[in-house]
Write a structure and sequence with these properties.
- By secondary structure, this protein is an all-alpha fold.
- It is built from 4 helices and no strands.
């Protein structure tokens, strides 16, 4: 039990430190309406998180981690409020794009039917 608690605390701490570093490296997201910029920022942040996960799992010795890395992941993602904001912004922008495309399609259907 002591081993699990120690692993949980150290992994959570490591995750928070790495997540804070990733968050500090990226520019502050403004939640702007630029879908391309938001997508690039999100891809960079997700890639850095992937590299952090890969590094953390490489540091585990022989898969003997009793926590399976969950505390690390919680600390990593939880310490990056910009990641959540970028995901929400991109989802909102993509949703708006889809809504606009659907509306244009719906508006064009009656005129296409009348032309036949």
């Amino acid at each position: 039990m002591t081993r699990i608690v120690a692993a949980s605390v150290s992994e959570m701490t490591f995750g928070i430190l790495i997540g804070t570093l990733i968050e500090a490296l990226l520019p502050t997201t403004s939640g702007s309406g630029d879908i391309a910029l938001t997508a690039v920022e999100l891809l960079v942040q997700v890639s850095l998180n992937g590299a952090a996960y890969a590094t953390a799992s490489a540091l585990q010795t022989g898969g003997s981690d009793p926590t399976c890395g969950f505390p690390f992941g919680m600390g990593l993602v939880g310490s990056q409020p910009g990641l959540k904001l970028r995901i929400e912004t991109l989802a909102s922008l993509a949703g708006s794009q889809v809504d606009s495309a659907v509306q244009k399609t719906v508006e064009s259907i009656p005129s296409a039917l009348l032309a036949n």
